[in-house]
Amino acid sequence: MKVMMNTGRTIPQGESVERKHSPEYESAASVCFIHPVDMMVLGIEDGAHIQLSGSDGIVVLTAAASETVEQGSVFVPLGPFSNHIVSGETHCTGMPDFKSTMVEIIPTEDPVPSVAELMESLGGVRYAH
Amino acid sequence: MLIKDVVCPFCGCLCDDLDVEVENGRIIRVDNACTLGSKTMVGDDRLKAPIRRDGKGWIETTYDAAIEEAAQILLEADRPLLYGWSSTHGEAQSIGVHLAELIGGVVDNTSTVCHGPSILAIQEVGHPGCTLGQVKNRADLIIYWGCNPIDAHPRHMSRYTTYATGFFVKDAHRDRRVIVVDTRRNESADVATEFVQVEPGGDYAVLSALRAIVRGRGDVVPPSVSGVSREQLVRIAEMCKNAKFGAIFFGLGLTMTAGKNKNVRNAIELTDELNRHTKFIISPMRGHWNVYGTNEVFTWITGYPYAVDFSRGIAFYNPGETTAVDILRRGECDACLVVASDPAAHFPKPCVEHLARIPVVQIDPHPNATTHVCQLQIPGSVAGIDAAGTAYRMDGVPIRMKAIIETGVPNDTEILQRLYNRVREAKGE
Amino acid sequence: MTELLIRNACVFDPLNDIRGDVMDIAISDGRIVESVKNNAEVIDAQGFLTLPGGIDSHSHVCGTKVNFGRYMSPEDMRAGRTARRGKMHVTSGYYVPTTYGNSYRYSTMGYTTVLEGAMAPLEARHTHEEFNATPHQDMLANTLFDGNWSIMEAVHAQDVKRAAAIVAWTLSAVRGFAIKLTNPGGTEAWGWGEDLTGIRDPVPNFNVTPAEIITTMISANELLHLPHSVHLHCNNLGKPGNYATTLETFGLVPDLNKNRQTLYATHVQFHAYGGSTWRDICSKADEITKSVNAKPQIVMDMGQIMFGRTMTMTADGPMEFNLYCLHHNKWSNHDVELETGSGIIPVLYSKKSLVNCVMWAIGLELALLTKNPYQCLLATDNPNGAPFVKYPEIIGLLMSKRYRDEECSTLNNGFEQRTSICSLDREMDWNEIAIITRAGQARALGIAAQGKGHLAPGAEADLAIYPIRCHDVDPATEYRNVVEGFQKTRFTIKRGRVVARDGDVIVEGANATFWVNPTVPDEHNVANDPDFVKKFEEYYTVRMSNYPVQDVYLPRGRCIKTEADL
Predict the structure, then answer these.
(1) For residue C159, what is the domain's CATH number?
(2) Domain extents for chain A?
(3) Which of the residues A76, C10, C184, C400 could staple to C479 if both were Cys, CB 3.0 to 4.6 A apart?
(4) Which residues in chain B are contacts of C345 at CB distance < 8 A?
(5) CATH topology of domain A2-121
(6) d(C-alpha C271, C-alpha B270), whole Å
(7) Are B246 and B139 in contact (CB under 8 A)?
(8) Cβ separation of A94 and B116 shorter than 8 Å?
(9) Is C416 among the domain residues?
């Protein structure tokens, strides 16, 4: 299913933003809000894992039903999960398309990565606090 | 011990009315803050010492050794990027700019992925604004456009707008009307008088339609613009013209969607137009508690509010070229100093991949996403908690952050000053 | 003890009545002294014109609206840029330079003290931060009270002592230097998008008139014994016919102080228009100067415009909006709760514009028609009329009729009927120039007592040595040399240290900020008044305890204490 990914702040993401390795942050930043009807079409329940692929990458998130999201679009809190698939193109404005990335969604059994794992996959070296 | 009137170091509201209970050098209770502020004040998840990468692992090191290593990294770089700045106080920001000036690097701040487009718009058409108290005391019409204050600036409505009483607005509930404009019915829409739902990417057209109606040219507006009916547009325009004092607050819904700075420009021009009929202001909802401070500091030193490149010797500004995301995406910088921000979490993947390839030094008290892609992290104290310094609220009002506990941890100003001095010394100055 | 001896200086020191004597000046530990020991460093001034350091009594260089002007104008930032060099940081900007840009350029021109034209108390911290980044001039801040709610309440209650108490608390809290009124009452009306049309117009919701605000504040100022007088930007700035408002305002001013003026009227050029529309606008400099010549209690500054691009920025919000409606340029506005307003918009003063030519003439007329040079000081309301780097050209114009005639011949035909500039023969001399660029300011600001603006023993050793041999140069004909000479000092000395030589600033600065602390009896301290505190906490969006500017922002503060007569 092709949808438009919107990203932004949420309270749970903001509350834990200074503790990015906490379970609170990792679940807050890796949730993907989808309209219930779209979830039905995908054949998934609340809490299911889904794989989002954008032009620049692939990431596994946890689905959460929300009627505040329009059908045909999803909302993911801003952070390392959503940014894993946002393009670096800024159209000469300096600002990436954080709120208008087209993504393909499919259900998946894969686990949702941790923040450290995401960074490792990009060439980082994990720091265990 | 109770400390009153503490200033919160989280969002651009810069609430300065927190009451904090401190005991044995620890914060044990925070009153008046929203949940974001409370969690920040009592959070205690900091690095105890500088850490450096050692092969495939990490070891602790000393401040002296860390600063020396950081200095060497910057001295060896041909094109260093100094990024972040928004979550530290102005005194540190000032040194950061001078450091970039000294080494001929690029210095950029988090506006670049937040309200940078708003700055670009202001540079085209200006900014008709005011301090938040003007809104609190006078505004009978508030418009939140492309932002969600309930989630991102939780006390904005109670301190400055919807629920705040003011000198000329004694009964907020009766005397104020709130319009929320967004692509989805967010939490802020639930408390609005009217909600306007715009198709994604449709804000520019809606703003143009409103401008046409305000100018008396509603005849050119089609029956529906980006999902908004002409009838609703006419009603909104009337509300605006009939207001005694209208205030538009806007956020990333305008800066990050298609059109970006042109969306914001259109909103500013609508505000200009409305000023011919009544009093209207527009102001951006700045995210970090001191991002506006970085713009102020950068500007009075260099002339430009972000994305400043010193490689030519002069201060050079060209967003799209000298902005951090573009420099990282192009793989152009060969070293990076990250201060008080977390680009590995908030920049697109290609940028983070490049950070992982080059030497990166981070000055930040918390382990974050950037920690895993840096070589060296130096923890400083936190402004508003154990460091004092200057911050600028989203409307430009400067407030001094207090140090309410003593931890003995050096603050960002000290760390950066030592780094600056070391680099100068090494350059023979 | 650092000692310096300047030899062969051709000194003009009007406050000590020295007019062109070639003499030595001895400096020790930052002050002028009678003599120094033999091992003092010697500078040979080679007979060059030597004046006390320049003092700008009205310039917009530091603070919220100035910084607004900078960051909304990247095109201007590209215009004036210089690279880091020696002790000098990067600079950017031509009409709104960065703080270091301002400081170096003022220093190059021999200026060592600057009064920031407008500081909103709520945002004072910002002004002080920028003061610290303007390191080669001692700074002072005009503090805005024109739309101040508690002041207007005191005015309404006809309670001068209350007004004085509020001023005292505010000035000491925000480390201000003087009372500034910009379009008094009008900035509050602008909070609703309105303006006032005259000094008897009541301010909506507060029911006081500008006349009442002005007279109350003048009385309050004198009760507090402040070094400077009330500093006023009159109502109706920029409107054809506004000279009547200005004269009416001048008529309000009593003579309350024997040491200095009772009112400083700023940038009066913008307030000296006759006619009633842009079509028939003309100069009323003659009427204005007639009034001032008869009133020793009034001092004004020119507010000279010079042709070219510049930026207008003032607390006069409604006026700036009118300019936006006229020119459709990018416009910024920033009203400050409970206090004042501001607006910013770029302008172009063009020789082709009849109106602009009349404006240009008026500024010069004001200076030339005012008999006593202490009563009309040189200023451009930087940058509103022109960037301050144009001061040398203004000096040239005031000293040379020929230069004025040459300029006039390049202007729009027809402007000559609107002004008398072409018929004015007066040519100022070196002494008068020294008065209108430093001695007059020192006296008007009340800082001669602080050792500013003169060179008698005890004074601060702030000096400017200009490469002009004033006994050999005829300024009436050699005006180009005069202009060039004033653009770049041979030496600028601040507190006994050479800070600039031939256009280069050679040391890092350590300026001082002068501020006033009027002490009032406890029963008049508004911080102890529950009503004042309650209103403060209710209507401001900053807590009262967080409002004052902390010590740390004035690393070298110079506090002038006064005793209030309450």
Answers:
(1) 3.20.20
(2) 2-121
(3) C400
(4) 126
(5) Barwin-like endoglucanases (2.40.40)
(6) 32
(7) yes
(8) yes
(9) yes
> A111 in contact with B at a CB cutoff of 8 Å?
no
Question: Which of C69, C101, C118, C60 lies closest to C346 in space, CA to CA?
Answer: C69
- Can you give the pLDDT at residue B101? 98
Q: Is A100 on the interface with B (CB under 8 A)?
A: yes
Give the domain extent around C226.
Answer: 88-107+115-453
Selecting from B36, B51, B252 the residue whose C-beta is nearest the C-beta of A15 gives B36
Residue A68: per-residue pLDDT: 87
Q: How far apart are CA A71 and CA A43, in angstroms?
A: 15
For residue C98, the chain B residue with the least C-alpha distance is: B300
CB contact under 8 A, B152 and A8: yes
Among candidates A14, A73, A125 on the partner chain, residue whose Cβ is nearest the Cβ of B372: A125
CA distance B414 to chain A (A): 22
- ipTM of the predicted structure? 0.97
The three-class DSSP label of residue C475 is coil
Beta carbon pairs, B and C, within 8 Å = 180
Cross-chain Cβ contact B152/A14 below 8 Å: yes
- What values do phi and psi take at C531, rounded to 5? -65, -45
DSSP assigned state of B383: B
Distance (Å, rounded) from C-alpha C358 to C-alpha C416? Answer: 8
- Say yes or no: do domains B47-113+289-426 and B116-284 share a fold: no
Region B47-113+289-426: CATH code: 3.40.50.740
Q: Which amino acid is at C562?
A: T
Nearest CB to B320; choose among A11, A94, A97: A94
* Helix or strand run (H / E) with residue A107: strand A101-107
Indicate yes or no: CB of A122 within 8 angstroms of CB of B356.
yes
Residues of chain C with pLDDT under 50: none
Residue B347's closest CA among A85, A60, A61, A114?
A85
Test the C interface: residue of B132, B295, B302 with most C CBs within 10 Å: B302
Measured between CA atoms, the residue of chain B closest to residue A10 is: B151
Beta-strand ranges (E) seen in C65-219 are: 111-119, 138-144, 178-182
Task: Report domain extents, chain B.
Answer: 47-113+289-426, 116-284
Q: C383: cis peptide before it, omega within 30°?
A: yes
pLDDT score recorded for residue A102: 93
Q: Do A86 and B349 touch (CB under 8 A)?
A: yes
| H or E element at residue B329 | helix B324-329
Report d(CA A42, CA B373) in Å as an integer.
35
Q: How far away is chain A from the Cα of B242, in angstroms, using its nearest Cα?
A: 31
Q: Which residues of A touch B44 (CB under 8 A)?
A: none
3-state secondary structure of B336: strand
Per-residue pLDDT of chain B in tens (429 residues, 90 and over written 9)? 999 999 999 999 999 999 999 999 999 999 999 999 999 998 778 999 999 999 889 999 999 999 999 999 999 999 999 999 999 999 999 999 999 999 999 999 999 999 999 999 999 999 999 999 999 999 999 999 999 999 999 999 999 999 999 999 999 989 999 999 999 888 999 999 999 999 999 999 999 999 999 999 999 999 999 999 999 999 999 999 999 999 999 999 999 999 999 999 999 999 999 999 999 999 999 999 999 999 999 999 999 999 999 999 999 999 999 999 999 999 999 999 999 999 999 999 999 999 999 999 999 999 999 999 999 999 999 999 999 999 999 999 999 999 999 999 999 999 999 999 999 999 998
pLDDT band at A56 (very low <50, low <70, confident <90, very high): confident
Percentage of the residues of chain A whose pLDDT score is greater than 70: 100
Count of structural domains, chain C: 1
Which chains are within 8 Å of A by 3+ CB pairs?
B
Pick A123's closest partner by Cβ from B11, B151, B353: B353
Chain C closest CA to B51's CA: distance in Å?
Answer: 32
- Domain B116-284, CATH homologous superfamily name and number: Dimethylsulfoxide Reductase, domain 2 (3.40.228.10)
The pLDDT value given to residue A100: 87
